Protein: Sensor-like histidine kinase SenX3
Organism: Micropruina glycogenica
Amino acid sequence: LPNRPLAVRVAPLGEGLVLLVADDRSEALRVDETRRDFVANITHELKTPIGAISLLAEAIADSTDDADAVKHFAGRMSTETARLNELIAQIIALSRLQSTDPLLAAVPIEVDDVIDDVLDQARALADNRGIALTHQRSSEGVVRGDRNHIEAALRNLIQNAIAYSDAGARVAVTTRLVHDGTGDWVEIGVSDNGIGISEADQPRVFERFFRVDYGRSRASGGTGLGLSIVKHVASAHGGTVTLWSRLGQGSTFTLRLPARQPDHHAEGTAA
Ligand code: ADP
C-alpha cells in the first residue's frame, strides 16, 4: 500500500514467526480532517456577524446624542443578529441530518403541497425583487420522508433561485413522476434564468460554506450551507440532487426522491 497512512501492530506467534496487522487509516484521517475543517469554518463564519455586532454596539454607545445614527446602527445590528440566527439554525439542521436517520419518522408527503407552502413563504421576497414564481404540479407526487427536512431542502433551492436572479427573472418549480431502470421517482425541478454558475464552480457548490460570490451570498442572507443541506436531505431519503447551469443563462437544480410505494397507500398523507 504505497503512500497510505498505516497503523501497524506486531503480534509474535512463537517459533520465530510474527503477525503484522496493518490498518489503512486513510478514511479515518480524511473524516478527521473534514471535521477539523468544518469546525474551523464554523468558527470563522460565526466570528463575522459577532464582530459586526460588537462594532455596532460600540458605534451606538458613541452616538447617544444622535437619534438617527442610533436608529441606523440598531437596524444593522438586527440584520446581523438575524444572520447569526440563520447560521446557527443551518448548522444545527446539518448536524441533525448527519446524526439521525430522517426515515425513522417517515410519513407520506405530498410534494406539491410542500412546494405551495414554500412558495407562499417566498412570495414576498420574490415580489420585492420583481421575480415571478410559477409551479407546475404533477398529479401524484408522493414520497416518504421527514416533512421538515424536505421543506428545508425546497426552501433552500427556491430561495437561492430568487437570490441569484435579477429583477424580471422567472423561477419555475415543476414536479413529475419518473420511472426508469432504477425505480420510481418524484422529480422536482427548480429552474431560474438568473446569473448561472460556471462549469468550474458547479462541482463545488454543494460543499459546506462554498460560495461563488461571498458578497452576493452575504447580501442575500446566505450562509453557504443551503446546498449541502439539500444534498444531505436527498441522500438521507435515498435520492439525489443534480445541477444544470450555464453562466449568464440560469440554473436548474433537480431533486429526485423515491416515489412512495403503492403498498403504503392506506396511510393517508401528512398534513
Ligand atoms: P448560500 O447560503 O451562499 O446561498 P448555498 O449552499 O445555498 O449557499 O449555495 C452555495 C453557492 O452556490 C451560493 O453562494 C451561490 O454562489 C451558488 N448558487 C446557489 N444557487 C444558485 C443559483 N440558483 N444560481 C446561481 N448561483 C447559485
Summary: The chain has a mean pLDDT of 90. The pocket of adenosine-5'-diphosphate is lined by residues 156, 160-161, 164, 192, 194-197, 205, 210-213, 217, 222-227, 251 (CB under 6 Å).
